[in-house]
Design goal:
The protein has 155 residues and is an all-alpha fold. The chain has helices spanning 2-52, 56-69, 74-86, 90-103, 108-120, 124-137, 142-154.
């Protein structure tokens, strides 16, 4: 009996130690994620500053670095889209804006920009669809409304 009780007590201690180790690992993982998010946000702000200054290559580098830290950042994807668009790389811009719209399904601006990237590639039906989506997200969106009138003439 005493031996069984001791084994049960040892098993309980081992389980408690495993639980504590798992909790510590979970806490460390959460801290690492928060640190990566902060680093990515800093890089995104840097990229946005480069965009504002017209430094497209530097902006792309910052956004790519942000994505290396946080691969599911819609803002970084949209930033890459904007930099590519400014460099007249419309297919690449569309690819990045499309990823941004998938990561943030409620952002009308990403839809408008994706539509513009399609428009520049003469993909008028796709552009129209994106601008209609932008208006469904944000009724009365001025750019989407204006662009829709323009694309109607192309179809």
């Amino acid at each position: 009996k005493a031996e069984r009780a001791r084994k049960a007590q040892d098993a309980a201690k081992a389980a408690a130690a495993n639980k504590a180790t798992a909790a510590a690992a979970k806490k460390a993982k959460a801290a690492k994620r928060a640190e990566a998010t902060m680093a990515a946000n800093k890089l995104i702000k840097e990229g946005e500053g480069h965009l504002a200054a017209g430094k497209w290559g530097a902006a792309r580098t910052a956004f790519q670095s942000a994505l290396a830290k946080k691969s599911r950042s819609a803002r970084a994807r949209a930033g890459l889209g904007k930099a590519a668009f400014q460099q007249k790389k419309f297919a690449e811009a569309a690819e990045n804006y499309l990823k941004a719209t998938k990561l943030n399904k409620r952002n009308a601006e990403y839809e408008v920009q994706l539509g513009m990237a399609y428009f520049k590639q003469k993909k008028y039906a796709d552009a129209k669809k994106r601008w209609e989506r932008a208006l469904s997200l944000k009724p009365g969106h001025a750019k989407a409304t204006r662009y829709l009138k323009i694309v109607q003439k192309k179809l």
